[in-house]
Write a structure and sequence with these properties.
Oligomer: single chain
Number of strands: 5
Largest sheet: 5 strands, mixed
Distance between the termini: 23 Å
Radius of gyration: 14 Å
Number of helices: 3
Structural class: alpha+beta
Shape: globular
Order of helices and strands: EHEEEHEH
Helix content: 25-40%
Strand content: 15-25%
Strand order of the largest sheet: 2-3-4-1-5
Length: about 110
């Protein structure tokens, strides 16, 4: 299973649906994962499992707006398909890498 970091601009309708199902009353600080990316920047994200991948969706006011817009959207615009996502390969991590980082924290 690979982890893919995405921000509000790359969130698909399918991922937004999962967020709405998993967090119907909104998410709290307890739901947010905090970690540093390869550049040493602090990232705060929701973990969304979809198919064989884990999406780490960056949280913030822009994601909140995307969720609100999604709820209010009555248009028939086609959704962004998962295959159409542009993922920065530098942001991909393997489970083993994350497990090593977790071991270092303890």
């Amino acid at each position: 299973m690979k982890r893919i970091i995405i921000d509000h601009t790359k969130v698909t309708d399918e991922i937004l649906n999962i967020i709405m199902e998993d967090y119907p009353d909104g998410y709290t600080d307890r739901d947010v994962l905090k970690f540093k990316n390869h550049k040493g920047e602090l990232i705060e994200a929701l973990e969304i499992k979809l198919n064989d991948d884990i999406y780490l969706v960056k949280v913030g006011t822009k994601l909140d707006k995307a969720i609100t817009d999604f709820n209010e959207d009555d248009s028939d615009e086609p959704a962004v398909e998962e295959d159409d996502l542009d993922v920065d390969d530098d942001l991909l991590t393997d489970d083993e890498d994350e497990d090593d980082k977790e071991s270092e924290k303890e």
